[in-house]
Amino acid sequence: QLVESGGGLVQPGGSLRLSCVVSGVAVEFYTIGWFRQAPGRGSERVSLISTSDESTYYADSVKGRFAISRDHAKSTVYLQMNNLQPEDTATYYCASGPATPYYGGTYYWAEAGGFDSWGQGTRVTVSS
After folding, report:
1. C-alpha 70: how far from its chain's center?
2. In terms of C-beta density within 10 A (0-12 exposed, 13-18 middle, 19 or more buried), how is residue 113 classed?
3. Cβ(53)–Cβ(119) under 8 Å?
4. What is the pLDDT along the chain (128 residues), one digit of tens a residue?
5. Rounded CA gap, 5 and 2, in Å?
6. Where are the extended beta strands (E) located within 1-75?
7. Distance of alpha carbon 29 from alpha carbon 79, whole angstroms
8. CA 57 centroid distance within chain
9. CB 66 within 8 A of CB 57
10. Among 20, 22, 28, 39, which residue's Cα sits nearest to residue 90?
11. Residue 87 has what DSSP assignment?
């Protein structure tokens, strides 16, 4: 079970921190992360973390602004979102899935279809 929180309304340039509490999943060798979906648009992979070695993935659209982290003791994954822009407005979903394959120095991060557990989503609105 994945339960997100932390969404809300923020002005452009503002910050939010999303939280995802994970339960019922053996997270030691999993991939956990965040996807988002804006109205009328498809799902976008935002940021992922590999729980085995803490390797991370960021979409180009959020690099340098968002940071994913994990608190193992609290079974929680966070997404710190800074310098938010109107185009970041979306419902953000936490998801977990199998470990990310790693071959030849490259991580092969899965798209949404590769994740088997999803949270209910938390809405983020960036507007002045």
Report:
1. 11
2. exposed
3. no
4. 899 999 999 999 999 999 999 987 666 668 999 999 998 999 999 999 998 889 999 999 999 999 999 988 888 999 999 999 999 999 999 999 988 999 999 999 999 999 999 999 999 999 99
5. 10
6. 2-5, 8-10, 16-22, 30-37, 43-50, 56-58, 66-71
7. 20
8. 10
9. no
10. 39
11. G
- At 99, list the tokens: 């470990």
For 46, 47, 57, 63, 122, the CA distances from 60, given in Å and listed in that order, are 9, 10, 9, 5, 22
Q: Tokens for 75, please give them.
A: 């079974």
Task: Tell me the CA distances in angstroms from 108 to 48, 59, 125, one per residue in order.
Answer: 11, 13, 30
**Whole-number Cα distances in Å, 30 to 63, 92, 117:** 22, 19, 11
> Both tokens of residue 80?
């710190």
Q: Which residues contact 110 (CB under 8 A, 6 or more apart)?
A: 31, 48, 97, 98, 100
